[in-house]
Specification:
Blueprint lengths: L27 H10 L2 H10 L4 E2 H9 L6 H13 L3 E6 L2 E6 L1 H12 L2 H37 L1
Antiparallel strand pairs: 1-3, 2-3
Helix pairs in contact: 1-4, 1-5
Amino acid sequence: MPSARRAPVPDGNAAAADDVPGGDALDSARAGVFEALGDPVRRRLLELLIPGEQPAGALVTALQARVRITQPAVSQHLRVLREAGLVQVRAEGTRRLYAVDDTGTAAARAWLARFEDTFAQPLDALATELVRGRRERRRAAPEDRTARDEAAG
């Protein structure tokens, strides 16, 4: 049976993570997280786990209500999520209970946090310009009233 995750095939043109500034931030663990999140079924499984721990059977039932999928296929998706560090599993008798693993989601948040500042400075500058424009309009407003009063009177 083929593996659910495939290693990238170098094409000779792609830069290695070490060659890219900040490339070490997207290490293999984080890459596995984003590869796992690339599948809509796996994203839905994570959404189903947001409220808390769920038995595998409940996850299968919830997914089958939306898409045609078999129990073995759901198990494979859960395995990929577990290997990526996004979910954890614990045995309770014969049942397997799945929950979101904060370690994997923290890795994804940490990587994505780098992009928050990308928009912060331009948005701060925009806010400053909006305030400056309002201030200038308020300053100009009394002069406009005076000019209108003189023209009317």
